[in-house]
Amino acid sequence: MELKAFIVEDNATIRENLIGALEELAAIQVLGWAEAENDAKAWLAKPGDDWDLAIVDLFLKQGSGLGILDALRGRRPGQRVVVLSNYATTDMRKRCSQLGADAVFDKSNEIDALIDYCVQQSHARA
């Protein structure tokens, strides 16, 4: 089953490569993306939006991924939020978990783990 995802990433090159990899390797349909905290929160909070997965960077053009995590604490059951960041330190992973992140992945060396996570989520929904 294809997961419907929303990407929060302000680097266009990273975002485009990530979307391509997710769509090709992990049965992901990317519904949209944002570069800033407020834009992401507005899109993700729209009533009736049927997203399954949000992939959130921590450092954005405006705001922070931490603010998005906090805003998504009340998301509906089954919606997953993961962090993909170059700043995936032990302390930051703990903070993200406290704010409700389902997983945290390091951009530099855990892209394969993110793809595997997405495949697992897709199979779990099938």
- In percent terms, what proportion of residues is strand? 15-25%
**Secondary-structure-derived class:** alpha/beta
Question: Unreliable stretches, pLDDT < 50, 5 or more residues?
Answer: none
* Element pattern in H and E: EHEHEHEHEH
How many runs of DSSP E, i.e. beta strands?
5
Count of alpha/pi helices: 5
What does the largest sheet look like? Answer: 5 strands, parallel
Could you tell me the mean pLDDT? 94
Set out the fold topology.
Elements: E1 3-8, H1 12-25, E2 28-34, H2 37-45, E3 53-56, H3 65-71, E4 80-85, H4 90-98, E5 103-106, H5 111-125
Helix pairs in contact: 2-3
Describe the protein's architecture and organization.
- This protein is α/β, with parallel strands linked by helices and 126 residues long.
- The chain has 5 helices and 5 strands.
- It has helices at residues 12-25, 37-45, 65-71, 90-98, 111-125; strands at 3-8, 28-34, 53-56, 80-85, 103-106.
- The protein has a 5-stranded parallel sheet with strand order 2-1-3-4-5, sandwiched between helices.
- Helix 2 (37-45) runs parallel beside helix 3.
- The model has no long low-confidence stretch (mean pLDDT 94).
Summed up:
The protein is of the alpha/beta class and 126 residues long. The protein has 5 helices and 5 strands; from the N terminus they run E-H-E-H-E-H-E-H-E-H.
Features:
alpha/beta, five-stranded parallel beta sheet, 126 residues
